[in-house]
Every structure is written in C-alpha cells, then in structure tokens.
Amino acid sequence: MKNMQTKLDLTGLCCSVPQMLVYSKLKKMNRGDILEIIVEKGSSQEADVVRVLNYFGCSSERTERGEVSIYIIRR
C-alpha cells in the first residue's frame, strides 16, 4: 500500500471547521502517512488544531513561515 502525503490549509477558516477537518483526516490516516497542516500563527484556530492532535496522541513537528504555523504529522 502506498503511503499518502496530504496538505490541509486551514487559513481563513473559523469556528469548528478546522477541528472537524483535522479530526476527519487523522481518522483516515494509515501507518506511514504524512499530514501537513497550515494554520494562522497564534490564532484560536491553531489552539483548536493542537487540541485535536493531542486527542489523537499525535506527535508533530511545528515550523513557522511568515504569518502561519505548519504542523507535520506522521502516523
């Protein structure tokens, strides 16, 4: 089975939409898959995404690029 790499750009989204999109992607990930999540740095959106990552027990790498934070999650 081929591993998947997916990019999820959540900039500009609000409310529970980012949480639900991340939750959905994480549930579908298989071992070896990679998910790149882009969020607005320091926003409530970023805090929501971090909560979902913690819920799933995911480890992630975080980098900053301009006004966004980028999270790389590997299953």
TrEMBL record:
Signal peptide coordinates: none
SUPFAM superfamilies: SirA-like (SSF64307)
PANTHER family xref list: SULFUR CARRIER PROTEIN MJ0990-RELATED, SULFUR CARRIER PROTEIN YEDF-RELATED
InterPro entries named among the record's database cross-references: TusA-like (IPR001455), TusA-like_sf (IPR036868)
Organism: Acidianus brierleyi
Pfam families: TusA (PF01206)
UPF0033 domain sequence ranges: 7-72
Annotated protein name in UniProt: UPF0033 domain-containing protein
Origin: domain of life: Archaea
